[in-house]
Structure formats: C-alpha cells, structure tokens
Amino acid sequence: MSSHTKTLLSISEVRPHLFLAGYGCITPSLLKQYNITHAVECTNMKTAPIPGLERLEVPVEDNTLGKISQYFEPVVKFVEDAKHKGQNTVIFCAAGVSRSATLTIVYLMVSENMSLEEAYLHVNKVRPIISPNIGFWRQMIDFEKQRSGSATVELISGRMARPVPSVYLRKAVC
Q1: How many domains does the chain have?
Q2: Which residues form the Tyrosine-protein phosphatase domain (predicted)?
Q3: Is 25 a catalytic residue?
Q4: CATH classification at residue 42
C-alpha cells in the first residue's frame, strides 16, 4: 500500500482533540479507538447515523463555487464546545482532502490565532494529501484578510490553467 493510500485510509491527528479523515474511516471501531464523540460531516452523502456520535452537517459541494465560508464559525464553535467538554472531534468529507481540510485549517486559524499559511503547513504536515479546491482557497484568503487585514497566502496565476496558492510553492522548498 502506498503512503498516499495509507494516508487516505487513515484518521489524521491534527490536535489531541481534533482529527481529519475521509468518509471511509468513519467506523464505530475507529471512532472508539480515537475516542471521537463529535463529527463535522461535509460529504453531501446521506450517511447512516452512528450511535453516540454527535454530528454537525456541512452540506457544501466540493467545487470552486461551493460556499464553505458560511460554515467557518459554526464549525469552530462545534469543535471548541466538544473540546471544552473533554471530547474529541473528527472533521471528514469524502476523501479528507478538500472540504474537511479547509475547515480544519480555518479551525486552527481561529482557535490558535495561526496565519493561513501556518495552519495550512501544519495540516499538510500531518496529512500530506490535503488540497483544498481553489474556490475554498479564495474563501480562506478572504477570511484571513477580514480577520487580520492582510493575507499570508496569495493565488499566483500565470501560464498555469488555474491559479496556485503561494503556499504550495513554499511547501516545495521546506
């Protein structure tokens, strides 16, 4: 099994109380293993409820037009409320690559006052397959500008088919 397949099929620990995953990992045994009692679900699939799992649904499409920013604050509050009760949360989408990664990055920005760049680099370190879509990047950049007055990530365009977040270039150098 390749390291990317292993990552895709695993729950990634971002913080002791916060995990990031794809839908395939949301099983009662894995949730119990990580002591996860709360989940932010952004799959847009009709999934069966899991007993004992409190869920917050984030019904957003994973495309450049998907409006994810309206869920930033509710997700942060949900995760923080669980944390204050001593409970663990998993944020998951279909693959644990775009929607859930976006919400995890924003959570770190808000809860730990990280810059967008710092939050992305941290989440990418624990889950190297993350890749928020370009529409989500735009919303995260706008969110950071609203919070701090400036952005630590910019979208670079040129001869590429679509813009690339500047942090991707930095990642290659790190």
Answers
A1: 1
A2: 10-149
A3: no
A4: 3.90.190.10
